[in-house]
């Protein structure tokens, strides 16, 4: 069984000293039953029998990684850099939100109203009826998932614009 451990030596087992339960139980048993036990806490050299490496407090610090060096705290930044950082964060969150929202929908007036006004020809209204479902037309410029003919899209766009202008 594995669980999370903060000793940072978990990528190279069995460097954990047995206090942490990030290693399989077989390693813990190996440490407990090691013929060289009890291990000297002052010795931080890796035990070749069981993998015990001394108490965690005596382990050397791991070298810093690139991500540690590149992440600056807000207190290290001046006001301009802090404002830029916040602006970039806001822009990224707005882009994420926009990507996760559904496509924009345009409300279309019913064709019965256009017949009452006497505007437009009947054929174009019939084509819109085929494409419009429950009075909602999807914004033109889809992601390519639809199979609509481009000539049909231009006819629909013209009719939507004409209907909106006539009201």
Automatic annotation (TrEMBL):
Please, which domain of life does this record's source organism belong to?
A: Eukaryota
Residues covered by region (Disordered): 56-129
Q: Where is the composition biased (Basic and acidic residues)?
A: 82-100
Bias (Acidic residues): 66-81
Q: What protein name does the entry list?
A: Iron-binding zinc finger CDGSH type
